Amino acid sequence: MSQPTHQLEHLPELPTIFRSAATHIELYGLAQDWYCAPGAGTEDIPIGECPTCTVGACSWAQTGSPTQGVDNAVVADATQFLAQHLGIEIRVDSTTGEPDYVDTVATWNDAPERTADEVVAFLRRMAAEAAEVDLLCRYIREHDDHQPYEWGAVEFGAYRAELTALRLAAAA
Questions:
Q1: Dihedral (C-alpha) 164, 165, 171, 172: value to the nearest 10 degrees?
Q2: pLDDT digits over 43-77, tens only?
Q3: Backbone angles phi, psi at 115, to 5 degrees
Q4: 0.85 exceeded by the pTM?
Q5: How many Cα atoms occupy the beta-carbon half-sphere of 122 within 13 Å?
């Protein structure tokens, strides 16, 4: 079973990674079928300036390389968060039977109709969502004896509504 996004160890780091990944794709372009464009790392295409896929951009944002972060724990959490918010079925590793978040995000990224603008917009939405979920988890830990990972979506949604109401009251 898939770990809920509010249980990710590196959740506080994800907004920055997603914003940086979005900016990278915005500046250098979207790669499909590769973590980064073929020929990257040469004089013509420095590794930090190559077009990347969504996972490659997250890897670049965390490690400085579009290919070195695939096994990095923060990049793994980022990829899981993205996969769980795509609204598509999570792919399963045929060998382990475990969710394959990298393959899920890569399949979405590599769809022929996918555009860089779509990916950038999605990453920016996910930066905001990750920040909101992190804030909500911190709020819950301060105001409830239970840990966030003990609840399902209904309880989590109720706390999100409560936090939104408190924000609106504070703004009034």
A1: 160
A2: 677 667 788 999 999 999 998 877 776 678 888 88
A3: -115, 160
A4: no
A5: 24
